[in-house]
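stuck on this one:
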Amino acid sequence: MQQLIALMVDHAIAVVFVVSFAARLGLPVPAAPVLVVAGGLAAVAEPGLLVGMVLAAVLANVLGDGVWFYTGRTYGYRFMRLLCKISISPDSCVRRSETLIGRWGGLSLVAAKFVPGVSVVAPPMAGALGMSTPRFLVFETAAALLWAGVFLGLGWLFREQIEAVLEALANAGSAATAALVVVLAAMLALRWWRRRAMLRITRMPRATIDELLALMDGEAPPLVVDVRGEAGIQVDPRRIPGALPIPLKALQQRRGELPFEDRGREIILYCSCPNEVSAALAAQALMTRGFVRARPLAGGLEAWIEAGHPTLSHDQAKPPLSAVAPAGH
């Protein structure tokens, strides 16, 4: 432990850069706690290090997020699905980043720094949505300065407490190292448990592509609903022919009524998210309203496209929005 603390003091700027860059690449690195400790060490050992730490953190953020920004611009939604699949919180990061960017625009890059599971997805989402490079750099630099300033500043502010904790850890030796390993393992286990809980909540029968095609050819075709938000549709404007655009949030908040009274009709919902989480949540929302035959489409829009079936743009033959008029109209 003493060697670890000495290494942190001697190579503080490099440690801050490496940890910040790794966090921006999506690795499960506890960057915020490291910056807090680094800020405390700088205040106690060498206050002049603080400026170098801030610059290192900002550079690491701009470089790491810049890679994702241009990858998102080049590959769009397909890359973000891959990014979320390797993320520790894959099932909600696309949906949450869509909502954040759709609501806040460039400021979402600032907010995303403090939202676990979204910080890595926000830059490629911004690139996929066509944010200009100068605009990205302005907001990204401001976000990085705020992020680094907050955590390094906390370390500076509580330097005495941090020094006491580090001294106690150094005296504790291997026991302290083991305790840190246990804490990190517990954090990862908590994230894993939350993901498993989400998967249990959204566990329900899925409709396959073949089932959907058979239903479409039947006497009572199903209602097909695209539950993606505006940002998701902007990234990939394709849709299954005949699908109604009703965002998940609108279904959950009951801000829209479905265009029929038969609650026994088949409803197939789709999204472009890992494990069809948004579509499953939408199906649950409909089932609580009595639509007992609502099901997510297995694989979502991507599975439909990969099977070679035709799509339309949301600008082509768009279903009338009167079909989803606010309740009470």
